[in-house]
Write the structure tokens for this entry.
Amino acid sequence: MSSEGISAASASTIAREVKRRRTFAIISHPDAGKSTMTEALALHARMISEAGAVHGKGGRRSTVSDWMEMEKARGISVSSTALQFNYTPTGPDGREPVSDDEPNVINLVDTPGHSDFSEDTYRVLTAVDAAVMLIDAAKGLEPQTLKLFQVCRHRGIPVITVINKWDRPGRSPLELIDEITERIGLIPTPLYVPVGIAGDYRGLLDRRTGDFVKFTRTAGGSTIAPETVLSPAEALASEGDAWTAAVEESELLGEMGQDHDQEMFLAGQTSPMIFTSAMLNFGVRQLLEALVEFAPAPAGRTGIDDVERAVTDPFSAVVFKVQAGMDSSHRDRLAYMRIVSGEFERGMVVTHAQTGKPFATKYAQAVFGRDRSTVDTAYPGDVVGLVNAMALAPGDTLFTDPKVQYPPIPSFAPEHFSALRVTTADKYKQFRKAIDQLDAEGVVQVLRNDLRGDASPVLAAVGPMQFEVVTARMKTEFNVDTVIEPLGYSLARRTDEASAPELARQRGVEVFHRSDGAILALFSDKWRLQFIEKEFPSLTLAPLVAAAD
Ligand code: GDP
């Protein structure tokens, strides 16, 4: 089928679809409640009718099985990469939609979780328009949240802050606000102030109306928590000191200028803040409504030739993740693309910008674990999985004419460094081919220098799981046995040709070329780096922030 055979959706249809879409990711540290919140969001979107079979039992689950179990238990189809659901704002007390508009379409793109933190975790953030930073009320900012936040900042992704587990003892709202302001320079602008301290979550003071939204617990938190709206006078009568404290906090925030400002939010300076209990489904509706109201709809992007592609222009998409070997029975490779412009129809033939070759999209799918469902039509902001996408790598562009090519996805600051060595002597040629392939796919960063030669390149990764993927694929796909030998380096800096020779002479430092042309200096530890920075202030040593380049 040729793309001309397909009736292109009119610009007005596309514009309408774009306007109702929101594409976001949840960034959090393990255990902050991302899975529970995802389920709570699905509950509010009526994708599932009851929560609790999964999270009510209290035990920890693995990320993959969260989704698996959720699907098994609910009979819903969710993708491990993107969960799409419709949501119609309902208003505070209601089960009734507040408007006759079409429902919003929400795409929740999953950041691969927890133990398998890797470059993919960061790449996902190139596919979203907003992020929800989910924080445990008792723990505050944690390392993984910080790393992911830095990527959001670097990419200019606006962030909504959610303080979760407010039903459990934790810090005070002002303490949490201070911590966020001081440590990351993001100014929280609470949309609501919780009534009742952490551990005694009664409801929310709506800072825009001044009213009290009172929550009622449901058995095991398994269904949507009913809300009652009370006037300030009624709230005072019913909640006493807890209400007065919330009013005072809200006033204080107002005096400090911490009210929502859409422009500052979109500029990444402020962050609307919401207090939730994902477990009890408190504040979840408020989060969805904030996403719909404040998070930006998908926007066009600029190609490498500086040409702007508007969302209503012909189809284009960016590949942000490639997953190989999900199905062990055949060599399967799945590429996930985020649609940037136009309408996608399954079966259309698009062009792969990097090779100029046509790419057939007959097998476009929404993917969940081993289960896949076909996607027929999709719009900007949506995520579509392409099966058997052997030629596609993260950062690649697909388009229909006119041509567009988007800038590559940057490589991210690696923190783990290992040498890779072949153990089967006669497989050297295959080894090199495999390394080039895995490098091109973005599975891991490959670093080389003359000293080590090609036989033993150094692999650099954001998470150690990436190394395991390399050795496993070397064996299964290329039939090459390899071993990983951890190196004594823990951080990297970007340097240049002029500084490289001096750096290479230093103890505890090694200089490499990365395949994208960057020159990286690896350091044994931060003290070594600090020492060299002090000793040789003229050397170029640029930090690779979470999102480098
Ligand atoms: P993830 O690792 O971020 O996906 O976190 P989970 O959703 O698996 O939650 C980790 C633990 O915290 C689980 O035991 C949840 O039941 C619990 N949890 C999540 N959200 C809440 C909440 O709002 N309140 C309470 N009390 N527990 C929660």
Observations:
- Residues 28, 30-36, 55, 58, 60, 164-165, 167-168, 277-279 surround guanosine-5'-diphosphate (CB under 6 Å).
